[in-house]
Design brief:
By secondary structure, the chain is of the alpha+beta class. It has helices at residues 3-18, 23-26, 29-38, 60-64, 107-121, 140-150, 192-197, 214-217, 248-260, 263-267, 287-290, 359-362, 391-398, and strands at residues 49-50, 78-81, 88-91, 98-101, 223-227, 230-231, 236-237, 295-302, 307-310, 322-328, 331-335, 345-349, 354-357, 367-372, 401-408. Helices cover 25% and strands 17% of the residues. It is globular. The structure holds 2-oxoglutaric acid (AKG) and fe (ii) ion (FE2).
């Protein structure tokens, strides 16, 4: 038996022996769902997980990978046609503003975006989680790793940034202990100046980080910033660092997805609930012209990684579509309501799927990723003789990875914050 499964089994039996019967009752419905899907043992039951790939015979092979499959009808959904594409869209009467475009990206496009994420994007001037702790080479951790692979004599040691962390060292205070579930203040057009005025110190480098080779650091790559810089400590954007344009490749995919959707079918159909769009009114009517992404993140998940329940509420545009692209291994995506007390819906996201979170309800709903599904890398991301040089290196990395490109609009199109 796989040693990690053995360990998971041991931990499971130990935990049920020690569990007092009321611990579970303290978990919010969202937390309980996270726990259920995260467990390696017993493996989670996916019969309540929506799996739209099962509706497309072209995806048969993908849906069999790793033995993981959900159900095509686990969640009430409605098919909508897309304007300029052969693919379909799905909307959900219980989560107005959520749109899923299964296999929206061609196999070729998926490969291109994997290549872009690793080789072109995860390097300066875009910040990555590794930059907090290490002095990374300008080519970024992926290209340094690839160079070593082709010629071991090029192996470099990446030095830590370790500094003496005295009081007043100009870094954020380090908080030890479990991560707190602290909610940040939602950004609005009226509190924007106040939030923008808060001092945002850089995160403190780890004092224990050691000189490391690229192959040691690569599996620790967790995110690379897109566009406006995000400050994790305050969970607000730091506009003082300037703006990096969202790469055309990404902007085009996102705009294409937003324009392919007939928003009237999403927000103005017979079954759509009346939503509170605030003073701005139903902004969806002009998204074809006003949607313009300016921030985001590329998330790199190894199969053991999870993303806790959260709301993306740092953007001034509170209803504008958030476009989320899945690549590589499949994942369970949970989406609930305005608090963790709403039972979340579970959706299986596979490589090439695009999720759009939009409107006043869905855009600020709790969501998270409790599980990456092992052995679900589709065959079209495995080696083939065409295109990218040394794809086998990408394939090897992607066997245990899911990439998510999560793209947002912070400001209305054309708006430039004061003093930037
Ligand atoms: O990985 C995903 O599908 C979601 C990522 C996400 O929610 C985020 O980056 O805020
Ligand atoms: Fe998110």
């Amino acid at each position: 038996m796989d040693p990690s499964l053995k360990k998971a089994k041991r931990q499971y039996f130990k935990s049920i022996r020690n569990r007092s019967s009321d611990i579970q009752n303290d978990w919010s419905p969202f937390r309980a769902a996270e726990k259920r899907f995260k467990a390696k043992f017993p493996p989670p039951d996916l019969s309540t997980v929506l799996d739209l790939a099962l509706l497309n015979p072209d995806r048969d092979q993908e849906a069999k990978a790793g033995g993981w499959a959900g159900r095509p009808d686990a969640l009430k959904s409605r098919e909508v046609s897309l304007s300029d594409s052969k693919t379909k869209g799905y909307i959900f009467p219980d989560i107005p503003g959520l749109v899923i475009l299964p296999s929206f990206l061609s196999h070729q496009k998926q490969k291109e975006l994997v290549y872009w994420s690793l080789s072109e994007h995860a390097k300066q001037p875009n910040e990555t989680n590794l930059d907090i702790h290490y002095i990374l080479p300008p080519e970024g951790v992926w290209n340094a790793y690839a160079a070593t692979k082709s010629d071991p004599s090029l192996e470099i040691q990446i030095k830590p940034k370790s500094v003496a962390l005295d009081a007043g060292s100009g870094y954020e205070e380090q908080v030890s202990g479990p991560r707190q579930l602290i909610n940040n203040t939602p950004a609005t057009s009226t509190n924007f100046d106040t939030l923008n005025g808060i001092t945002k110190l850089p995160a403190a480098p780890s004092p224990t980080a050691q000189p490391s080779s690229p192959s040691i650091l690569l599996p620790k790559l967790r995110w690379a910033n897109i566009g406006w810089f995000y400050h994790w400590g305050t969970k607000q954007y730091d506009f003082t660092k300037g703006k990096i344009e969202v790469h055309n490749k990404i902007r085009d995919v996102c705009r294409h997805a937003v324009r392919a959707v007939d928003w009237k079918q999403v927000f103005d159909n017979d079954n759509a609930p009346q939503l509170d769009w605030g003073d701005a009114g139903p902004e969806w009517t002009s998204w074809n012209e006003t949607y313009e992404p300016d921030a985001g993140i590329v998330n790199f998940y190894q199969t053991k990684d999870t993303l806790m329940a959260h709301v993306d509420r740092s953007e001034v545009c509170a209803t504008s579509p958030l476009v989320s692209i899945s690549l590589g291994n499949a994942a369970i995506f949970l989406i609930g309501g305005q608090t963790r007390d709403t039972e979340p819906a579970a959706i299986l996201l596979r490589s090439g799927d695009v999720v759009i979170m939009s409107g006043p309800v869905c855009r600020r709903a709790y969501h998270g990723v409790p599980r990456i599904l092992e052995n679900t890398l589709p065959s079209h991301l495995r080696c083939s003789d065409d295109d990218v040089d040394n794809w086998s290196l990408y394939e090897e990395y992607m066997k245990t990875t899911r990439i998510n490109i999560n793209v947002r609009q912070v400001f209305p199109k054309g708006f430039v914050p004061d003093g930037i």
